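Possible regression after last week's pipeline update?

I re-ran a chain I had predicted before the update to compare outputs. Posting the input and the new output here so someone can diff against the archived version. Not blocking, just want to make sure nothing changed silently.
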Amino acid sequence: EEPLQHRLLAALAAGDEAGGDSRGRQSAALLVVREEAGYGGNDDIAADLRVDDHPAPITELKRLLDLSDFYLTASTEAEKVQVTPEIEAEVETYAAAQGASGFLAWVATENYEMRVAEDLSWIDRRILDIVRTPK
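New output (post-update):
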C-alpha cells in the first residue's frame, strides 16, 4: 500500500482534474504526521510540503514529494547496486571533478547518506545515474 502522503496527493490530483477550486489553481499543501516518521525517525513529520504560488501547484507538489522521498528515505534492496572496483573508480573520479575530497565526502555534501553504504559496498541506482549523467 502506498504511503499516506502519496494517497493524499493522488486525491488532490483527482480533485484538481475534476475541476478543482472554483477560484483557480495557485497553491497546494500536504502535511502527514506519524510517530517517528521523519528523517532517521528523529521527528514525526512524514511530509510537510507546500506550494504557495505556482501555475501547476499539484504537479509541483508531486515533484517536491518525489524529492522529499529521495532525500529522506533509505534505499530499498531493489535500488541498491553493488559497488565493483570499476564503479568505485568511476564515482571517485566524479567526486574529484566536483571538487570533493572523495566520493563519500560528496555524498555527505549532497545529503545522500541514506542512498550510499558507509563502506561504499553499494550505491543507490539513482545516485549512480546522477554520477553518469553529463551536466
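Follow-up from reviewer: compared with the archived run. The longest strand covers residues 45-51. Marking as no regression found.
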